[in-house]
Amino acid sequence: MNILLTVDPEIPVPPGLYGGIERIVDGLINAYLEAGHNVTLCANKESKVPCRLVAWPGQKSQQWSDTLKNMAALTGLVMKGRFDVIHSYSRLAYMTALFPMRIPKIMSYQREPSLGQIGKAVKLAKKGSLVFTGCSGYIASQIQPVAEAYTIYNFAPVRRYTATAEVGADAPLVFLGRLEYIKGPHIAIEVAKSSGRRLVIAGNLPPEAQGYFDEKIGPYLDDRITYIGPVNDEQKNTLLGQALAMLMPIQWNEPFGIVMAEAMACGTPVLGFPYGSVPEVVDNGVTGFVCADVREMVARIGDLGAISRAGVRKMAEQRFTDKVIAGDYLALYEKLISRSAK
Fold first, then answer.
1. Which of 16, 62, 214, 275 has the most beta carbons within 10 angstroms of its beta carbon?
2. Residue 245 domain boundaries
3. Number of structural domains, the chain?
4. 96 shares its domain with 210
5. What tens digit of pLDDT does each residue of 209-218 get?
6. Considering the entire predicted model, what is its pTM?
7. Which of 13, 14, 28 is nearest to 108 (CA)?
8. CB 72 within 8 A of CB 323
């Protein structure tokens, strides 16, 4: 197949540190190339990918003039090329002029969808040519009342992570994610204190969350609760592999949470609250526990010994690898290409 992928223009593929979507697209590119397909990527000009790269002329997704530039660039590229399918992780608006065309178009959502925009796009699109995917059933189920939508999960670069069979008696709990209220690092601190466990907090601190950090995180840091800043893949491998469990005490409906798959790739169980995708990603009692509240999360720490870390890794390999998810997307591409030929 001749596949065209798009991502928003702000972050290169692959990203240096933060950039979940860009990591997903990087993994898909490599999996597609390995399977013998041709790939073109529209992305930030600084991207370093082993396929054809077309740099967006507009660099800001939220700027209307840049949206028009990128819409025109994508339309021109498709008109000149011979693509079998267009798979967008960028703004839906970029495909506006392509909606009436027969070519299969897939829009993947990694966040809460805008149903109004989706509904308008479906009305403009040639029947059956535009479908949507959600990175979890939680996301896809919101789209399905107004458009054809499928659940295709995200993945972690499982091969880059090493599963740790056993950890020490004083192994710490880990929180890994953006340090902001909705991610719940303050609750991770509460869980650690209540359970008497060490806690390592890692992740980037957005400038707008500095006040939250100063009030809810900073005052509680000591020799048992530490903050180490952002971490790369190599550092994640060590951090997660040495953890007793990774805490996911989210205060919002997480669309997917790649960090859960990363922890599982290291054999590390996940303790999370039952919001968004967590009940889909965490196999309760097998790869961790879905907890109703802080009290249950603290109690479940005592049950972690019943979970096989080798089993956690195996589940990550079966559900959340680049090859598995690329295969799901390729099957969808083939379905849509076959349908468009009729």
1. 275
2. 158-319
3. 2
4. no
5. 999 999 999 9
6. 0.91
7. 28
8. no
